[in-house]
Design brief:
81% helix
Length: 204
């Protein structure tokens, strides 16, 4: 019973600090430049066509490893989005700050009521983690994008800081799982079968 009460107190304290951090980012870091770019970073519709064109160019111009990365990215986006939006959000049932807090500076439509985890952060950090695992040099340059998207969700008033932190962690875990399954469940068995066939064909 004591441990349960301590756990409840811990989460209450964490929630209070999360609200404080939300107001600090949402209200105290506001400026004209961020007011312009943060809603754009937060708007998925603006990025769909450029990302689709980039993926198409990678498939056409890239090698086999790049094409596999694009395929894994598509699988990963479906997986991470479904887990964040349709499993964890209903399970946690945390309400968005723009629905329950007063004085929120809202720069975009508030959206649905459920807040944790941020699907934007989940999906973007999933793809970034995938890039780091398969194309490390490129992934290092791209880190600013998922970080900016995650920050923007708090800045525009639709998520708490812990929502995006949880989303980033979930996205990274999803990417690790997809890469491990691809590597150990698909690529390596195929490679072993090819080597076995080569050895068998080489025998007199």
């Amino acid at each position: 019973m004591i441990y349960l009460l301590a756990l409840v107190k811990f989460f209450d304290t964490l929630s209070c600090w999360d609200t404080i951090w939300f107001y600090m980012i949402n209200l105290q870091t506001q400026n004209g430049f961020f007011d312009l770019i943060m809603p754009a970073l937060s708007d998925v519709k603006l990025w769909r066509v450029p990302l689709a064109l980039a993926a198409l160019a990678a498939v056409i111009l890239g090698g086999r490893r790049t094409r596999v990365t694009v395929l894994l990215a598509l699988i990963l986006l479906v997986l991470s989005d479904q887990i964040s939006s349709h499993v964890l959000k209903p399970l946690v049932s945390r309400q968005r700050p723009c629905h329950v807090l007063e004085g929120v500076r809202l720069l975009v439509p508030c959206g649905g009521r459920l807040s944790f985890p941020s699907s934007h952060a989940t999906n973007n950090f999933a793809i970034w983690t995938l890039m780091m695992l398969r194309h490390k040099k490129l992934g290092a340059y791209l880190f600013i994008l998922p970080l900016g998207v995650a920050y923007s969700r708090v800045y525009v008033g639709v998520h708490y800081p812990l929502d995006v932190v949880g989303g980033a962690m979930l996205g990274a875990i999803c990417a690790l799982c997809v890469v491990m399954i691809s590597e150990y469940g698909v690529s390596r068995p195929i490679k072993r079968r090819r080597e076995t066939r080569t050895l068998q064909n080489a025998k007199p």
